Amino acid sequence: MWKWLHPYANPETTYHLTGRLIPWFSYLTIALLTIGLIWALLFSPADYQQGDSFRIFYIHVPTATLSMGIYVGMAIAALCSIVWQLKLADASAAALAPIGAVFTFVSLVTGAAWGKPMWGTWWIWDARLTSQLILLFLFLGVIALHNAFEDKGLAGKAAGILTLVGVINIPIIKYSVEWWNTLHQGATVSKMGKPSMTIDMLWPFIFCYMGFIFLIVVITCIRFRSEILSRNSMRPWVKELVLAEGGK
Amino acid sequence: MHTTNETTSTPLLSAKMLTCIREDRILFEALNINAYSGDIIQVEGPNGAGKTSLLRILSGLSVPYDGSVCFNEKNIQKVREDYHQNLLYLGHLPGVKGEMTAQENLAFNLALQGLNPSLAENTLKDVNLLGFEDSLASHLSAGQHRRIALAQLWQTKAPIWILDEPFTAIDKVGVKALESLFLTHVDRGGCIILTTHQDLALPKERIKKLTLEYRFF
Amino acid sequence: MAQLMAQPMVNNIQYLNSLSYRSAFMLVLKRDLTIAFRHKDDILNPILFFVIVITLFPLGIGPEINTLSRIAPGIIWVAALLSTLLSLDRLFKSDYNDGSLEQMLLSPHPIFVLVLAKITAHWLLTGLPLIFIAPLLAVLLHLNEHSYGALMLTLLLGTPILSLIGAIGVALTVGIKKGGVLLSLLILPLYIPVLIFATSAIDSASMNLPFTGQLAIIAALFFSTLTLAPFAVSSALKVSTN
């Protein structure tokens, strides 16, 4: 059943494959993000309630939802690595973790910046902001654990176990934080009104969203390639590669 | 390494195409080992050649980068509990608790293997620890700690012994006693895989040597 | 012949014939308790830490009774989290350093049974004493008088969760030289749900409201961590001793 996957479990093949894919994904990302952001920031209509500050939505929402997606992606990679002993899955999880942390951080900062005009304060203990903060801690934990091991193989396995423990806990944490938030309603100044999206807001949003997805793909590919190189540095094909690069 | 023993056709323990990589250095690659009952295999090599790593892989503590270890032709990952019932591994660290007495330590180690802990009292005599049964291990020396660990060898029913530097901190008399125990064990049909820096004072034809070389890449 | 080897070779040994889960569990539990009682500082220090942390809060916040009784549940629970965190190091570290952890992983017993025994010993030595001391400290913090039952019940159900989740963190970091700070980074976020539900149960009790809902959630958390954590711990230990 896994036979068709087998050639891609070979580090060398994957390295060259991702190398060929990166330029295409990069063009796509640049195109999508340029169109999406210019459209969103300059041409799409301002929200009738929130005015221009609403435009931060085009960055905040993609980063927030995708950061969760990245964690789930890491967990899937970790599961593959533990169940099928796929060494490349470890490398892809390691490649994803810092990207996820940055996305979470960006969503927190944009959330705070959006909160300032909306709530009059940089930070409130809103359920979504709080669980996003905890998600950032989970990402940082995985990265810290990964860095603490000297042996890359062990680091990947340990971080994988932690990721799986984390992914089981994320729904529980999310639920408990939401529950805690409704319990202490007094803290919330006003719930963010769900902006009703018109069609001329939706299209730039879709462009931005897809742009961010491909941005993740591109950065993951680049980081994934360097992970593969550092894990296989004693393999002959890597040495040949280094010699070839050095000869240029 | 591939000399077959007449009495057996299948090896008790076999390693197939083992590769071990530690921090970007290949320690060994495509290594095959067959240990039949009656074998004493001495793993030799300079420091850093991967002797301990090899023994840890054989014991199932470490997972090899590539290749597999089989007990009775079955992968030890699949038959872990069965394999560990038939294995005694003693590593660099003796696994002796300072807060417990010599006898309690041995009794725990025996019980962990499913043996009767009451055997501990008589066994300490064999490793020359008579009179120290009730001393806390924290008051004993490094050599005595190792003796407590080694005492399990006199009682274990496991046929496969994997011993990493068993003679460290052991005096000459102790070494002699151990060597004769090794012979008895393999004559009974067990097998031993060990590393040691001293030469074994056993008949040359009984020992099979496996040499690992230090590799720089 | 190879088949014969799996059979006992030596005949004069009495076998305990008991690789049963229960005997393995009791064996390790007894050993850990013995070691701890011969090294009493390890038991007393986290408890003392718990007491001191709780006394710091009135000093930092001021002795006003209403404020203290308002924040008492949170203080007690955060102090419980921290003192558990402090004591977790003992769970596998010394066994890792002297090699007995290896021997346990190489024993024919299922590893999760041994792990569960060690976690149980840890809870008996750190979680259980907290349950008895917490009411005394609650008096110092002027906890609402209706809340004592809830406090004890949440601690009873919640502290085992702290030990179980903490064990995963220790198992992952036991091989790392400076794992102490890292450990707190890994497990404190995972403690958040317990903290939220426990403090809210105590709050509800103080308002004379039913708190069975929160208690049921904590119980559910307890049983799910009880079933899942030992497996996570054993695979983490295998990585750490690799």
Indicate the low-confidence ranges of chain B by residue numbers: 1-8
Largest interface: B-C, 49 and 40 residues
CATH topology of the largest domain in chain B: Rossmann fold
How far apart lie the N and C ends of chain B? Answer: 25 Å
> CATH top level of the largest domain in chain B?
Alpha Beta
How many domain units of chain B?
2
How do the strands and helices of this protein lay out in sequence?
The complex is a heterotrimer of chains A (248), B (217) and C (242).
Chain A: H1 11-43, H2 57-84, H3 87-119, H4 127-148, H5 152-183, H6 199-231, H7 236-247
Helix pairs in contact in A: 1-6, 2-3, 2-5, 2-6, 3-4, 3-5, 3-6, 4-5
Chain B: E1 13-22, E2 25-35, E3 40-44, H1 51-59, E4 66-71, E5 74-75, H2 80-85, E6 87-90, H3 102-112, H4 120-126, H5 142-150, H6 152-155, E7 160-164, H7 172-187, E8 191-195, E9 207-211
Parallel strand pairs in B: 3-8, 3-9, 6-7, 7-8
Antiparallel strand pairs in B: 1-2, 1-4, 4-5
Chain C: H1 2-5, H2 21-37, H3 41-61, H4 65-88, H5 93-98, H6 100-105, H7 111-140, H8 148-173, H9 179-206, H10 212-240
Describe this structure in words.
- The complex is a heterotrimer of chains A (248), B (217) and C (242).
- Chain A is 78% helix and 0% strand.
- Chain A is mainly α.
- In chain A, α2 runs parallel beside α6, α3 runs antiparallel to α6 and α4 packs antiparallel against α5.
- The radius of gyration of chain A is 21 Å and the shape is flat.
- The radius of gyration of chain B is 17 Å and the shape is globular.
- In chain C, 79% of the residues lie in helices and 0% in strands.
- Chain C has ten helices and no strands.
- The radius of gyration of chain C is 21 Å and the shape is globular.
- Chain C starts with a helix and ends with a helix.
- Classes of the chains: A mainly alpha (248), B alpha/beta (217), C mainly alpha (242).
